[in-house]
Design brief:
This protein is of the alpha/beta class and 699 residues long. It is built from 15 helices and 38 strands. The chain folds into five domains: 97 residues, no CATH class; 158 residues, 3-Layer(aba) Sandwich (Rossmann fold), CATH 3.40.50.410; 101 residues, Immunoglobulin-like, CATH 2.60.40.10; 211 residues, Rossmann fold; 92 residues, Macroglobulin (MG2) domain (Immunoglobulin-like), CATH 2.60.40. The longest helix is centred in the N-terminal third of the chain and has 20 residues.
């Protein structure tokens, strides 16, 4: 502990002199006794000292002194106990032990460690939550997400060890070792589950297309697996709405066998179709849930055709093609303007004009044809574009003062954009994309434009558009003022190990431009055509008045009905100027819905269907993977234990040389004038001094 002040050291002797002078002036005579008394009483000296001390403290506080102290802290090691709460843990003969006794034993282990360590409990499956599992009902297991979540929670803390109680089976996420190593703590695995192959037959997978087209046939490749089932037989069936479409008897001649069966079905009904693939049961199977497999196929009328018309070859063209064709609803054809200056655009729902107009080429006849047929256009401006000609193409903008120079403009997503929505994760991903080459000049808007992304030049956010949309009459137009879109695909893969963000952005743009105008006053959307049973089913609704302005004064009701006829009733909540409904988790099956509202002087309704998919991922593979647990333990310098070895696990933690408290010294600086003890000392000195003076007859 030490004192310091910003003033020079010689101010302290001055404070001492001032305090001594003040005390001497007050007590140079002592009016408490006879004037003839020459010897000062001892208590007068005490009063003098009290006054001197009080005055010195007050003077010293005027120098704004600081008190520097050092606090010694001891941080206990954190022992993280994470228990698997997925269905596969109890899909074996020891399920009763895991449900009743093991979790209690793990809790007891934590209590015994609690005195010397900070013990935190978690349960995991698809997500991570605090506490130990009360039931084993998680439909999926993501071990890499567990370690990533623990890293985010405990980074820079003294993590002593991670006690991981699991069967080692994961069916979502990446291989967990990389994430486990980031924690820099030993993983002590409690190996649960059974590594023996149980008697079981199952539909292990069905390979199929997500989409089919009405009137066509489509394949299903059904993969089956049998364990300890030699001499048994089972009937493989494919049904739709209870109607049998395929049947075959399978003979199992070996203890373990794999099989596959390819069949072709007719897409004879439009919309989302639900097919059920099943194997009839055999005796003493460990699980019957994996005998069935649900297949959902969206049967469409046909693909929307898009023409990508370019001035010359460019890396952006390949990036655009791949991004758009990632959505199976679209079919893209690439042509060059030099091959066909005025192609027939009638078969297309959208024409993308890459760096057109360019050079001295005129595309006015093409634009007139598109205008007459009301075909929307998406312009992409680049270094080969003729900006002066582009200004006359009805994009909603003119660029004045262009002299052939270009900026490097980073994307700045506009959160108030109203034509379609980008979720928060997509907005964040776009914000990290590299800059595009954009024309340098003054952007002047003509008409009503909706800007999705603005240009950011370095650290300066501008109002210049990077991606914008315009509507003239019933024709929609979009424009991208930038070249280098291929870099966005590379950046997306580098940042996210996939290209879903850039693909979704293109899907949103194409969907808006190519979609026919919806003139309904009441619209209802659900975020997916089918949901997993562990996902919340959500709806959005929009209500327009006669001027096509969003309103939400009226209440919107929704009624869900499953195939058995059971109904669920809901009321939408009002969200801004629209409506939102979270129907929560629903049992697996097909549902129809009808949303109703009374507005604009009449009753409006919207109907539709969706499916909730049964998740059996945890039951497709019930054989514990203790090899994975051994590798996790070995690579992190931990150890593998079995449920009957919890005492050995506790002893490992107690005797480990690396699982120790961290002692550190922390410097604290405080303004001395803020100390309550200083104030109390001054008040005490003055109070005692006043009391003695009064007792001896002076005030």
């Amino acid at each position: 502990m030490q004192f310091s002040t910003q003033f020079p050291w010689y101010y302290i002797p001055i404070c001492l002199l001032l305090a001594a002078g003040g005390a001497w002036l007050l007590y140079k005579t002592h009016p408490f006794t006879d004037e003839q008394q020459t010897k000062r009483p001892w208590w007068v000296w005490v009063l003098t000292f009290f006054r001197f001390t009080t005055l010195f403290i007050l003077c010293y506080l005027l120098l704004e002194p600081l008190l520097k102290s050092y606090q010694r802290h001891i941080e206990k090691p954190v022992i993280i106990i994470a228990a698997d709460a997925s269905e596969s843990v109890v899909a074996n003969k020891d399920s009763a032990y895991y449900r009743s006794r093991l979790i209690a034993s793990v809790q007891k282990l934590g209590n015994e460690l609690g005195g010397d360590y900070q013990v935190d409990y978690f349960q995991f499956g698809q997500k991570v939550t605090a506490g130990l599992p009360a039931s084993f009902s998680e439909k999926q297991t993501n071990l890499s997400h567990l370690f990533n979540d623990l890293f985010n929670r405990y980074d820079k803390q003294n993590v002593g060890a991670v006690v991981l109680a699991t069967d080692g089976i994961y069916n979502e996420g990446e291989y967990p070792l990389h994430e486990a190593l980031r924690l820099k703590a030993p993983v002590l695995c409690i190996a649960m589950g059974d590594t023996n192959r149980q008697r079981d037959i199952k539909v292990s997978n069905v390979r199929h297309n997500q989409l089919a087209y009405f009137g066509n046939t489509f394949p299903l490749l059904i993969e089956t697996e049998s364990n300890n089932s030699a001499g048994e037989q089972s009937v493989l069936q494919v049904t739709k709405n209870g109607k049998k479409l395929f049947e075959k008897t399978l003979q199992f001649t070996e203890s373990r066998a794999f099989g596959s069966e390819q069949i072709f079905l007719q897409a004879d009904e439009k919309g989302m179709q639900h097919y059920k693939v099943s194997l009839s049961r055999i005796k003493n199977e460990i699980s019957y849930s994996n005998n069935e497999y649900d297949v959902f196929i969206d049967v469409l009328d046909g693909k929307q055709k898009i023409l990508l018309l370019a001035q010359c070859p460019h890396p952006d063209l390949g990036a655009i093609l791949y991004s758009i064709e990632s959505n199976a609803n679209y079919e893209v054809k690439l042509q060059y303007i030099s091959e066909n200056p005025n192609p027939n655009t009638e078969p297309y729902s959208l024409v993308i004009l890459h760096q057109l107009p360019g050079g001295n080429q005129s595309i006015q006849p093409l634009l007139d044809q598109m205008q007459n047929k009301r075909i929307p256009a998406l312009f992409i401006a680049g270094t080969q574009s003729n900006i002066q000609a582009l200004n006359l193409c009805g994009t909603g903008y003119t660029i004045n003062g262009f002299r052939g120079m270009h900026n490097d403009a980073e994307p700045q997503v506009q959160t108030l954009f109203g034509l379609f929505t980008l979720d928060e994760s997509l907005q964040k991903a776009i914000g990290k994309f590299p800059p595009l080459k954009t024309p340098f000049g003054t952007y002047v808007t003509k008409g009503s434009n909706e800007i999705l992304i603005k240009q950011q030049l370095g650290n300066i956010a501008t109002d210049m558009p990077l991606i914008s949309f315009n509507k003239s009459g019933e024709t929609k137009t979009g424009i991208i003022f930038g070249e280098g879109l291929w870099r966005w695909r590379l950046a997306d893969y580098q940042q996210n190990n996939n290209q879903e963000a850039v693909n979704e952005l293109w899907s949103k743009i194409i969907q808006y431009l190519a979609a026919k105008e919806d003139k309904r006053n009441f619209r209802v959307h659900h975020s997916k055509k089918y949901f997993n049973e562990n996902e919340h089913v959500t709806f959005e609704a929009e209500l327009y008045n006669k001027s096509y302005e969003l309103i939400n004064e009226a209440d919107v009701m929704l009624e869900l009905k499953n195939r058995e006829g059971k109904t669920y009733s809901f009321t939408f909540s009002k969200n801004g100027k629209s409506y939102f409904l979270d129907a929560g988790l629903l049992p697996a099956g097909s549902y129809s819905y009808k949303a109703t509202v009374s507005a604009n002087g009449k009753n409006e309704s919207v109907s539709g269907t969706f499916l909730v998919k049964l998740l059996v991922a945890e039951l497709l593979n019930t054989r514990a993977d203790h090899q994975l647990l051994a590798e996790l333990a070995d690579e992190t310098k931990g150890k593998l234990f079995y449920p009957n070895e919890l005492n050995l696990l506790k002893e490992f933690i107690k005797t480990s040389n690396t699982i120790k408290p961290v002692v550190y010294r922390q410097e604290e600086i405080m303004d001395l004038v803020n100390l309550k003890s200083i104030f109390a000392l001054i008040v005490t000195l003055l109070s005692v001094e006043w009391f003695i003076r009064k007792r001896n007859g002076a005030y």
